[in-house]
Fold each of these.
Amino acid sequence: TTKTTMKQEEIIKIICENPQISAKEMAEKLNLTVDGVRYHLTKMKKAGLIRYEGSTKLGKWIITK
């Protein structure tokens, strides 16, 4: 099993509510910097929890676990 941090749980919840959300919007909701959000997203992608499909502008997040 992969351990998820509180921030990652919150990111997953936010993605559930809005799969098209940008890292910038996530940062605002979580009171993190955009880089902070990207750090968590990268870790979650490597762990196979989420993936991003589509183009930068029109793509969406998909929760895989």
Amino acid sequence: DINDVERIEIIKGGSSSLYGTGAFGGIVNIITKGGEFNNLKYFKGSLLSGYNSVNSSGVGRLFFNAGSQYWFAKISGSLRNAQNTMTPQGELANSKFYDNNFSGSIGLRPAKNHTFKLDYQRYYAKDVGIPGSSLFPTTAVVTYPEEKREMYSGEYKFTNISPILKNISAKYFYQTILRDVENIPNQIALQKTPSGKLKQKVTVDRIAPIANHYTNGIQIQTDWSFGKFNNVIVGADIWQRSLTSDREKFQTIYKYDTTSGNLLSTTNQITGEKPLPEAEYRSIGGFAQDEIKLFNNKLKINLGARVDHIKVTNSNTLNPAYMIVNGVLNTSPIGQKIIWNGTEASEVSWSSNIGAMYTII
């Protein structure tokens, strides 16, 4: 939810030691609003609403935040509903949508220098139109019938442990993403005899891909201070992402008598496919980052290194996976073959970075 964004950090240059080996070019870090501890009790909230005439879109958002020096709680939610967008050239077909966002955060201080935090985010959308793409036929109507993302995270942190060891934190996170697509091609294939008589008509009524993504992981991080001008972060993390995907093609097959032109039979056929194999990606890594400040903080030097062990696995994948003809399931249809062989790969990945910035004024 754009209204739930507190700030966006743009970290230029290599930051691979803290953010992973893929972060050589830089980081765009979107930080959402959360609660905070405060010596004084506080309660605050807001209610926003809006309307866009271009697509008859209604928008509403509720935000509430409360806390003290020992606890905080924050909830926010938004709701949007839009019809097709109107343009100077007319109505943009299949551009309507409905979605909502919800996020919540709870923080506690169970003891001195101890903090515990729970976060939750949920995004849900339905009947989201895709108003045109070169990936689909011009006759196709493509929508997202249902889209959902949920994320849970919990963090426990010890602070001010010693003059050298400043903080120790442990975090667990879990995220699921559902991607559901409906493609109505509106296409008909005709098969005729050499003399032009209609023999068969096949309509592709609907194509329905769906995919589920699951990610979970743990991170442990320590913050050290070696003197006034040297701050070091050392930690380790393990995380895994898995994917399952399916696609069903719904067809109706009409067969005709080539002499009389009469309809002989109608067959309803559902073909189950696996566009991608079921797969898992797991990473176990350790990292260290050192920030050195010199000349009254005018010169900042960053040194970092990271090592990860990465393992990727995928299962055997058959296509077509199955076929349902007039309600009868066949798990070994004609033409079934292996398109992805089950395999695994394991590698060690390492990276390092160094950077310096001098402020003249």
